[in-house]
UniProtKB/TrEMBL annotation:
Residues 256-370 form the Erythromycin biosynthesis protein CIII-like C-terminal domain. It comes from Amycolatopsis tolypomycina. Keywords: Transferase. This is N-glycosyltransferase. PROSITE patterns: UDPGT. InterPro entries: EryCIII-like_C, Glycosyltransferase_28, UDP_glucos_trans, UDP_glycos_trans_CS.
Length: 378
């Protein structure tokens, strides 16, 4: 079987799931490669997976090369965004031109697959599979994104027509690999071809003197914040008010070295520490509610205080609260006192711990995503 896995050139979209899935397929004797933008090619190849470079598929940091693709309103916000003042950043979850170029690049790559497996956001790969006449499957790294795209079915049909295909009125992935147990998915997102898998990761050992609270807002947020944003300072101050051992990820070692904000004695400032290891030792996770972070927190059985900042994060945060695994807190108007109160509430609520640990047990019982190639072959 020739298996082409596709995704946007963003580390969190490729490294946690598509890379181990491609490696598992190759170890099982299949021919597998990952198709993505050049920005991630070197890293993926170093991880032992061949890359099909899609020349027009840009990483977020490369969009300055093609300003015509970027919404001017979004450009005006970048570098000025203070989520504690204005709330979540409004970013597009579907871009017709970039999606069409993604599809065209996959079709024209000259790497003819038997099956295409895309990550959720790679909508262009879905249409490329239809153009090539091969089945497609989706690894659901962002399950709440599709309902957030206005008129997604109609936009995909316009894209199909541009490739000479008849409109279908719907997505046409044959299989879906969910990365959390079924209860995470609202009923309308569960399809007949939906399976559920865990992401296999090396075990971590919880440190006996680990933090009670760990706070991290992902790998992208610091580059988007205005220089005078107080989000990270508010977080450090809030955990200082609680007085419990805490770690706050600032995003880089340079950020730690240049930090001029509060430095409470109970809070350790780190650049980009090993998240899974810290979660294994934590009682509460303060997070932006990116899906990978939510998945890792639930895998560790750790309840969350979710402060969503952009994309599908508000929907993820709402789902965390709906399922009882934590609370959602609005970024706009955020204060150290409000954040400290939310963390204290989750720390003192056994129901949040029970819900998070229920997901942990459900995740542990799932088959590994590396089993997925057998289903694709069948």
């Amino acid at each position: 079987m020739r298996l082409l896995l596709t995704g946007l050139p963003i580390p969190s979209h490729l490294r946690p799931v598509l890379v181990p899935l491609a490696r598992a397929a190759r170890e099982a004797g299949h021919e597998a490669a990952i198709a993505t933008g050049a920005a991630m090619a070197g890293e993926i190849e170093r991880l032992g997976v061949p890359v099909v470079v899609l020349p027009d598929v840009l990483a977020p940091g490369e969009l300055g090369r093609r300003p015509e693709l970027v919404d001017p309103a979004l450009v005006r916000q970048l570098g000025k965004w203070r989520p504690e003042v204005s709330g979540p950043l409004d970013v597009p979850l579907f871009h017709p031109t970039m999606t069409a170029e993604f599809a065209a690049n996959v079709v024209g790559a000259g790497w003819r697959p038997d099956v295409i497996v895309r990550e959720t956001n790679a909508f262009g790969a879905l249409v490329a599979a239809e153009v090539l006449g091969v089945p497609s499957a989706v690894v659901d790294i962002a399950p709440l994104v599709p309902p957030l795209v206005p008129g997604l079915a109609g936009q995909l049909d316009l894209l199909r027509q541009g490739f000479g295909l008849a409109p279908s009125g719907a997505a046409a992935d044959r299989l879906t690999a969910g990365l959390l147990p079924e209860p995470w998915y609202p009923a309308g997102l569960r399809t007949p071809g939906h399976g559920y898998y865990r992401v296999p990761e090396p075990p971590v050992t919880a440190s006996a003197d680990g933090p009670v609270v760990f706070a991290a807002f992902g790998s992208n947020v610091r580059s988007l914040l205005a220089p005078d944003s107080r989000l990270l300072a508010i977080t450090v101050a809030a955990l200082g008010l609680l007085g419990v051992p805490a770690v706050v990820a600032l995003g880089s070692d340079d950020a730690v070295a240049s930090w001029t904000g509060p430095r409470p004695g109970n809070v350790e400032l780190a650049g980009f520490p090993p998240q899974r290891a810290l979660l294994a030792a934590s009682d509460v996770f303060v997070t932006h509610a990116g899906f990978s972070s939510v998945r890792e927190s639930l895998s560790a059985g750790v309840p969350m205080v979710a402060v969503p900042l952009f994309a599908d994060q508000p929907a993820n945060a709402a789902r965390v609260q709906e399922l009882g695994a934590g609370v959602r807190l609005d970024a706009a108007g955020l204060t150290a006192e409000a954040l400290a109160a939310a963390v204290e509430r989750v720390l003192g609520d056994p129901a949040c711990r029970t819900a998070a640990r229920g997901f942990r047990d459900g995740i542990a019982a799932l088959p590994p995503i590396t089993d997925f190639p057998r289903l694709l072959e069948a």
